[in-house]
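Hey, I'm writing a tutorial for new members on how sequence and structure tokens pair up, and I'd like a real worked example in the thread rather than a made-up one. If someone can provide the structure for the chain below, I'll link this post from the tutorial.
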Amino acid sequence: MLTFLRLAYILWISLRYRLDELVLSGIQHPWAHALLKIVCLGRRPRRARGERLRLALETLGPIYVKFGQVLSTRRDLVPQDIADELARLQDRVPPFPSDQAADIIREFLGDTPQNLFAAFERDPVASASIAQVHFAVLHDGREVAVKVLRPGMREAIERDLTLLRALAGLVERLAPDGRRLKPREVVAEFDKYLHDELDLIREAANCSQLRRNFGPDTGRAHLLRVPEVVWEYCASQVFTMERMRGVPVSQVGRLRALGVDIPLLARQGVEIFFMQVFTDGFFHADMHPGNIYVSDDPESLGRYIALDFGIVGSLSEFDKNYLAQNFLAFFRRDYRRVAQLHIESGWVPPTTREEELEGAVRAVCEPYFDRPLSEISLGQVLLRLFQTSRRFNVEIQPQLVLLQKTLLNVEGMGRELDPNLDLWQTAKPFLEKWMHQRVGLRGLRQRLDQEASQWAQILPQIPRLAYARLNHPDAGPAMRAELERLRRAQDRSNRLLAVLCGILAVGLGVAVWALTHGGGL
């Protein structure tokens, strides 16, 4: 009942903000235009379509705001006016009252903001779908940003997730590709990441890990700045970190005026993404422009700044190797290897003909090579690959959904910074170097170093284990005898069953004969 009421509320909000008119106006079909004329009779929308969509998403809650944030980065798929309006969702969601923020800080940190901090700005500097941020100064003079979780978030998210689970179940049962797409697994993955984002201690830990991955001793500090966590002022609903100053990555005009090399910035953004994914297996998975800034400090001018660590992704060694080999095969136009990888990974049925899958992938990808980013829509490539995958029953991998979303964010930011960026050529050298480190002598030495501690414990035990195994009685004859006994018992059961079936058949025949002749008398 609650799910039905929530669905009815969503429909009411859609009609209230005239999203029916927005949807119908985007469908190129005669019946859609006819229906649009009917629904528009007597009531023209008073607000622009982008504003109506933004307000509807804000009203519906955090899940829908997240959806709008992703759409705002895809200016190749969304009209300019809608993308500009949805960009306001990145850090200008209406804030909740400052008194509530102060109450949450007092409840979880044990004192009022006025006592905890030397200075605390009551008005939030940024307000997003999950939390809002206040600037403050510690008693030792350090400037910090205090992130406070919105009240009532867990209940709101649970309500919408219940609806998504119900819809996923319907899709799985009714849609032709329902089982292959694994909608329930995808919703479960989304559920996990949303609940992780509600725990600000987990977010602080993510921030600390990412900062360590780009620390001074890694050789990557020139690429990305990550704020330091102030652990004494962190709790499940309060997260305090070093205050960072910079310019949003979407404000290209301001960056140029500061003297930032925009093409270099775009290439470094792609490198940072692939470095997090393939080197660390730990990546910032909410990379919309509201969370990515560029330093305007003269000492670190042009360096990326990462904010908001509520959603991060992680990949296993198998996933990293599989993805890296797929990317390299794509970049080299080795479509046969792409087909082999899909079959080896079990993503397609083992009966799939390799040459047929190779030809289908070639038909999708070949037209997109040797083009600048401005002429490539990764969304269209993914859509065509999805259409092709239906033919070969490719299973959607829920653990990679977050990576796909982040890749779309990265593409959207790269398109805004430098439309001429060649995404393929920027990523290819990095992946080739990564693969060389993994499969070459250097990679072998690294893996030996990683396993050395385990070998030190296992190697001394090998002689004793080998001796015990060699002296263990051979269980083969006993197992064969037991299997033979079971086979004979099965044969006896089959013969008995056959006799019983014969007796039953004769009895039924006699009964039918008796009834037939009895009726004749």
